[in-house]
Amino acid sequence: MPLLEVRGLVKRFAVRQGLLRLTIGWVRAVDAVTLSVERAQTLGIVGESGCGKSTLGRLAMGLLNPETGEVLVDGQPLAAWLHKDKPALRQRLQMVFQDPLDSLDPRLPVRESIAEPLQHKRLSRRDINARVRQALQEVQLPPEVAIAYPHELSGGQRQRVGIARAMIVEPAFVLCDEAVSSLDVSVRMQVLHLLARLQKEKGVAYWFISHDLAVVRAVSHEVAVMYLGAVVERGPAEAVLSQPWHPYTEALVAAVPRPDPEKLVRVQPLAGEVPSPQAVPSGCRFRTRCPLAQERCAREEPALLEKSPGRWVACHFRP
Amino acid sequence: MNTGAPQAALLEVRDLEITFFSDRGALTAVDGISFSIGAGETLGLVGESGCGKSVTGAALLKLLPRGAKAGGSICYAGSEVTQLSGQALQRFRGKEVGMVFQDPLSALNPVLSIGEQMVETLKAHEVVSSQSARLRAQEVLDAVGMPDPSRVLSAYPHELSGGMRQRALIAMAILLRPKLLIADEPTTALDVTVQAQIIELLQRLRAEQRLAMILISHDLGVVAQLADIVAVMYAGRFVETGDMRAVFKHPRHPYTAGLLRSIPSLTRGADLSQGIPGSVPDPLHLPLGCAFHPRCPRAIDQCPTVIPSLIAQGITRFACHNPEPGS
């Protein structure tokens, strides 16, 4: 049984306009997405801005309600968890955000922010302090950091505090949404390393949402590539990113500038930009930018099919 | 036509020093950097946040904020930029040097259409009729690969997508046919497929118009695609500089080597090296000696006391007491 599973999730947002807030259209942010992750595994979710990856993360955490589809945690519907035992759910699922400043209260020493997920546990001050100390140690921060304020810390230290805060309840699953995107290159690797070590030691599973393919490749066991709200390709990280099947994945991989002056030869960059999610093209949503597109693609939406064990792709022509 | 004779540099910077004065004291953001760029050449200025790369770009255009002071010499085509003012400065910015920034929305005027902004710029610098200015604007939009240039002329910045805005900004920067373009993180805010388009555009402009460029970026991948020469900055100084290929292939400074190792590879698979320990130092409390020594795996006795100076070896220069082995 997967630790976390989402099935057929759909989320649309109304586009409203004018004084009366009349709905003038709908954005299909997440469009029938099915994904899962096992214990101690990392699922990388990649895609460009507006592909719905962050909305998907919020749906999986129960921070947004899907229109249709369901989220299962340990095989139990999220709705049942929320109804029965919300605190227990919050201990199973935690989040690390892009900008740790968003999740840390600027007026409180970071000790308070780190301990916040323990609130409902009715622990003594001493126990809490001990847990905070241990959490800081696990993310390799000195104990003095407990009494520092967020603005006194560097970006890398703040992100470690954000991770300590997520890890203090020993969650089974942590959603990392662009968790290293705002960090300097030299510090980013330290944080990725930390996440990998915590996974090894504690068996925590991650969803790692990022626009950075190389980072996703470095941490993920499996990846899902999203385009305009839907998963277009999914499979083992190595296979998908070294031998992409979907033309969009292929274009994404080719577009990553390599820090290697010998690798200048790149395929023709993908023309145009991602269409508005308010006007998703008919048929295959990628067809307006796809070099392989034919008339059939406008008529018929390709289903995400398992074309070899563990490898899924939504394309009429690939592999 | 390269005759082999040494070319006069287009831009020559000597001992540039930039100091900020704040209530926390004086802060040296850039501490004596020197470089030169010839026509058609691209310099990649790389480093992490706070290393002084963006401030350097601003200083070259005399765009430093109040409270900041620049020292040293910036010589452009024989004249001293630090002495420019009034009309000469206006002419320098725009006609001689164009600029492109990370966030095109903040660089474009939101209440004027793209065409109005371009015509205004042209008229400020050249005696042209509105009609021929508009025609010229459309040509330049076309040259930067803008889809449907005639429609874009009457569009407002907010009506354009991120990639189109960045193209518009580049069009504006090259409108007066400058010889040098200063591009500060020109692709950082863009999605990766759009970034690839902008990189291709900059490569093309460089080749077609023999445009010299200073590319300021934290992204070594972007720099590898565009730069001829590279300067790696750390805590306000150049730690390594020279031919881009040579530096990327055989970095001699441990910081350059560490940065290159910190980029996960798309092809090498799950490879999590440790990166560089510690973090960028606070510019108000820089370590003594080599500013990188507390994070450096190769630090030796003199590193905490003696600031290493740049020494040339082959086609690169580096400032290190104990460099990585050469090729």
Describe the structure.
The complex is a heterodimer of chains A (319) and B (327). By secondary structure, chain A is of the alpha/beta class. Chain A has a single domain (4-257), classed as P-loop containing nucleotide triphosphate hydrolases (Rossmann fold, 3-Layer(aba) Sandwich). Chain A is 33% helix and 24% strand. Chain A has twelve helices and twelve strands. In chain A, the strands form two sheets. Chain A has an eight-stranded mixed beta sheet with strand order 6-7-8-3-9-10-12-11, with helices on both faces. In chain A, helix 8 (185-202) links the parallel strand 7 and strand 8 (205-210). In chain A, helix 2 (78-84) packs across helix 3 (86-92). The two termini of chain A are 29 Å apart. The mean pLDDT of chain A is 90. With 327 residues, chain B is of the alpha/beta class. Chain B is 32% helix and 23% strand. Chain B is built from eleven helices and twelve strands. In chain B, the strands form two sheets. In chain B, strands 6-7-8-3-9-10-12-11 form an eight-stranded mixed beta sheet, sandwiched between helices. Chain B is globular, with a radius of gyration of 21 Å. The chains are: A alpha/beta (319), B alpha/beta (327). At the A-B interface, helix 7, helix 8, helix 9, helix 10 and helix 11 of A face helix 7, helix 8, helix 9, helix 10 and helix 11 of B.
Descriptive terms for the model:
heterodimer; A: 319 residues; alpha/beta; Rossmann fold; four-stranded antiparallel beta sheet; 12 strands; globular; B: alpha/beta; 23% strand; disordered N terminus
Enumerate how many helices of chain B there are, as a single number: 11
From the spread of the alpha carbons, the general shape of chain A counts as globular
CATH class of chain A: Alpha Beta
% residues in beta strands of chain B = 15-25%
Terminal-residue CA separation of chain B:
32 Å
Strand order of the largest sheet of chain B: 6-7-8-3-9-10-12-11
CATH fold title of chain A: Rossmann fold
- Low-confidence spans of chain A: none
Please give the largest β-sheet of chain A: 8 strands, mixed
Number of domains of chain A: 1
Shape-level CATH architecture of chain A:
3-Layer(aba) Sandwich
**Overall average residue pLDDT of chain B:** 90
What's the N-to-C terminus distance of chain A? 29 Å
Low-confidence stretches of chain B: 1-5
Q: Give me the Rg of chain A, rounded.
A: 21 Å
How many distinct beta strands of chain B?
Answer: 12
- Secondary-structure element order of chain A, N to C: EEEHEEHHEHHHHEHEHEEHHHEE
Helix content of chain A: 25-40%
Strand order of the largest sheet of chain A: 6-7-8-3-9-10-12-11
* Cα shape of chain B: globular
